[in-house]
Amino acid sequence: MARRRPRGLLGLGWACFESAAAGRTEHIPTSKDYPESVMRRVTFTAGGGLRWKISALITPRETPAPLKIVVVPGAPSWAEYWAPLLAAMPQDREMIVVDRPGFAASEPATCVPDIRLQAIALSPLLEAAPGQKILLVGQSYGAAIATVMAARNPKSLTGVVLLSSFLGEPGPTARFLVNLGLRALNLLPRDLRNAILEVSGQRAQLQHGDADDFAPIELARKLVEETHARRPMEFICMPGANHFLNDGPVEVLMDALERCIPAPAPSKPKLKLPGLPNLEWLASKLRAPPHETAGA
Predict the structure, then answer these.
(1) Can you list the positions of beta strands (E) in the chain?
(2) Contact between residue 83 and residue 34 where contact means Cβ atoms under 8 Å apart
(3) How far, in Å, CA of 120 to CA of 152, rounded?
(4) Are 69 and 93 spatial neighbours (Cβ–Cβ below 8 Å)?
(5) How many CB atoms lie within 10 A of CB 47?
């Protein structure tokens, strides 16, 4: 059975200290919980000519699945916290969860505050196999980055999900913790320090569960109400859920994602050609004596 990761913001913060003290890039590496047949860690080169090595967890499939779910997590960005959902993916789905630049095993070691640069770096995630569709999921701080990725690559996506999106205006919990972290920035481990630098600088770049006091749910609701898009947008509120939906029951998040997958378009009716005459019958009539054809 997979061991449980610390839950919530304080648990995640403590995991940053613990992993830094042990010299690990992850809190609890997934290799201790899941075989490589279930999920595998991979690296790829960042897009846009950047030479960073980006780390991610994937669900291996012998052949590409019809749907690829790409997850851009929040801050701190650790793909391992999505491991239970990765393990629950059915075979007709595949998922990749990235460690964003500046976190876990991804390069660079420093914070990359520009969400546009992060979107460019993560653009290889949107490469699809022939006939494969992509559902892009941005969680918390990753929602802003996913939005930029979607704007740059609209044709490659079948849908975009902004999960517990942090859109520049922090709630009371985030505001208190970020302000506290800024005062002790030099004492914090890399992942936690980079997370605070990201969150504290996001608002200048931007012109959910109903118990989320980290990223106000009202902002996401307003975004859906005021945005006019060619394809329909839906606001989904998860009763009792906090900011960390991926910490909760896998079934709840799985159901939410499935609701965001567009239904396949109805197949077009096949074109029916007018029926051809029975050629053998017609030939027999042409060979028949005149009196027989006259009576036909």
Answers:
(1) 40-45, 53-58, 67-72, 93-98, 133-139, 159-163
(2) yes
(3) 9
(4) yes
(5) 19
Dihedrals phi, psi of 80, to nearest 5 degrees: -60, -25
Q: Which domains does the chain have, with CATH numbers?
A: 8-294 (3.40.50.1820)
Asked whether the beta carbons of 258 and 281 are under 8 A apart, the reply is no
Angle of CA points 179, 195, 135, to nearest 5°: 130
Confidence of residue 105 (pLDDT cuts 50, 70, 90): very high
Cα angle vertex 64, ends 54, 89, to 5°?
80
Among candidate residues 100, 99, 70, the one with its CA nearest the CA of residue 85: 70
pLDDT value, residue 269: 63
The DSSP element (H or E) to which 183 belongs, if any, is helix 172-183
Question: Count H helices, E strands: the chain?
Answer: 10, 6
Could you report the per-residue pLDDT of 244-254, keeping only the tens digit for each?
666 667 887 78
Contacts with 38 (C-beta within 8 Å, 6 or more apart), sequence order = 59, 60, 86, 87
Cβ atoms of 129 and 210 closer than 8 Å: no
Q: What H or E segment, with its residue span, contains residue 285?
A: helix 279-287
